[in-house]
Amino acid sequence: MAQAAKPSSAKTDTSENAPASPPPAPVKRNAGKWLLIILLVAVVVLILLVAAVGAFLVLRKNHSNGDTASHEPAPAAQAPAAVPVAPPFTPAIDLTKPPVFVPLDPFTVNLRPRDADDDSHYLQTTIILRVTDAKTAEALKGWMPEIQDRINRLLSSKNLTDVQNDMSHEHMQSEIMGTLNTLFGVPPPPPDVPQGQTTLGPIQGVLFKTFIIQ
Asked: What pLDDT band is residue 49 in, cutting at 50, 70 and 90?
């Protein structure tokens, strides 16, 4: 007659052949750690994005201001206060064309007496003529006797008062110049015209180098 199985052995076999139990679930603390890391990365990316956008806007604004300034006309510089400036000196005579001077022999003439009781006086003077050019000066040599005669007659017509007043030299210079220019077809100037205003003839000036009255 067969023996019955031992209960202890059957129980032992059942525990050895049972399937393995599943692994325990992951701890929730690890999931929270990863979530925190993702949030930090997202915040950093957001900060960088905001900074980039801000820098872009600032650069764009500066560029726009630069373009506007380049197209706007520069303000006109304030003119300094006007300072009175003397006008440039303009000589009455062209200094690039110096005149030619013709010296004459000295003249000694007796002056007319002013009245019967007037003592005799004479005038001694040396005259120099100013002419337009050297060609005219050379041509005057052929006229010299008549030039000297006209000057002698004019000086001899003067009395002591005529040659001693304040305007005597200027009047006599104008008279001599007008008298000599009539030799060359120039009309005589009006009376009392100052020397230098009748320069149409070859004789443009009369100068007294010496002027002695005795």
From this structure: confident
